[in-house]
Amino acid sequence: MFYGLFNGGITFDPETDIKDLSEKVIFVTGGTSGIGLQTALELARHNPSHIYISGRNKTSAESALKIIHSAAPSAKVTFLTCDLTDLHDVTSCVREFLRREKRLDILILNAGIMASPAATTKQGYEIQFGTNHVGHFLLTKLLLPTLEETAKLPDSRVRVVSVASVGHLIAPDQGIVFSELRTDMCNWHTFRRYGQSKLANILFARHLAELVDKKGSKVIAVSIHPGVVDTGLYKSVEKWYIVPEILKIVRRIKLYLVDSNTGAKTQLWAATAESSTVKDATSESAKGKVVNGEYYTPVAQAGEGGKSSQDKELARKLWEWTEEEVKDYIL
């Protein structure tokens, strides 16, 4: 019942455990607040060539840039507008990024929404699935050639980190309800819809890892659960029945909610730690190292995804379905 709620795993200190990031180019979606902002801030302290943060709110971006520069005055950080609910906007964002950069070392797919009212994206996808999965899929698909080229460079360590959630365990029984993805899925509880989108994040990373591995690319793709982080995602839960009372209890006894500093650690570790050639992420030799395609809970704990999250056939079907959906937006 409490799977994924408590922090454990290895000890990871971003200040001392992240190595020098000279020449590295980094892209963090949703980098204007919460764990996305904290992630960008911590990475900025390690001398990257350039960090890009994306989001929809320019006011939040201005504030985020000030916070990052106060911690890392010499860091080069740029905000790119990217509305993941609009695939045209995603394409525009990537076009602007590629106009500026020829390499990309770390892509952290951090942006997301949670427990939103029933609605659809501009292209008609269920709002949480469209934002959390489809928009990020297109973004990654467009940036993948650059990631693969970067991975060919000497001393490169190219990562795609998909920020998923323990919430994938409450996805519908069939995992992904393909027949209803182009509706608002109003007959499904918002948590079910959220769980479906987070399951998609894990399946996406697993299949991406398989594809790049078959091509002989050194790109590594993983998904992570950051912990149950007390961030803006929880603003909408105040109107959930029963849940507000549960959250009040949890906040009062500090049972498992963590702050953004702690919540960012797993994705920071996944983005920067040494990789393992051992494919069994639960083995002793792979402990503390990043294994391609794995799903991790805090910090660096592998092998804890639900059954559907390990379904290779479902991952393949999701990839092919999404690829067909976004084909008209490929540059």
UniProtKB/TrEMBL annotation:
The top of its lineage is:
Eukaryota, Fungi, Dikarya, Ascomycota, Pezizomycotina
Keyword field contains tRNA processing: no
GO molecular function annotation: oxidoreductase activity
> What Pfam families does the record point to?
adh_short
Q: What is this protein called?
A: Putative oxidoreductase
Q: Which UniProt keywords apply?
A: NADP, Oxidoreductase
UniProt keyword Oxidoreductase, yes or no: yes
**Matching InterPro entries, A to Z?**
NAD(P)-bd_dom_sf (IPR036291), SDR_fam (IPR002347)
Q: What organism is listed for this UniProt entry?
A: Golovinomyces cichoracearum
Family to which the UniProt record says this protein belongs? Belongs to the short-chain dehydrogenases/reductases (SDR) family.
